[in-house]
Amino acid sequence: MKPHAEIAEVWPRDGRVRLVGRIHGRPAEGDWRLLLTRRGHTGRSLHYPAHVKGDRFEGELPIVDLVTPDPVEIEEWDIHLTDGKARLRAGRQLDDIHGKKKIMVFPEQHVRGLRVRPYYTVKDNLSLECRTGAAS
Q: Whole-prediction pTM value?
């Protein structure tokens, strides 16, 4: 399995998404940051500090930062952990639960007309889904 940021906990609340996990498959030395990349606009990314101790990491992001000047109905942000050299995809691969997209559902948060929800992709990676408009 290739190196990745193995997610152990996802805490979406109080206008933030907190992530806790372990760096899997490579040394964890260095200055690590959470990296969010807007899937529909690859030139747009956000960076947040990640606290690393041993191979364990923890970081959080404010959902208000996901509000963009050019919103679309559905926008997705992919989550990585990076030290400036390596870019590790955040996900949950080591638990033998496949198909998390249909199994694990996280609560939605609201900010400035945007609904934000963490979700697992079909490849069991963690991303954020942002929707504009009223809840359906």
A: 0.94
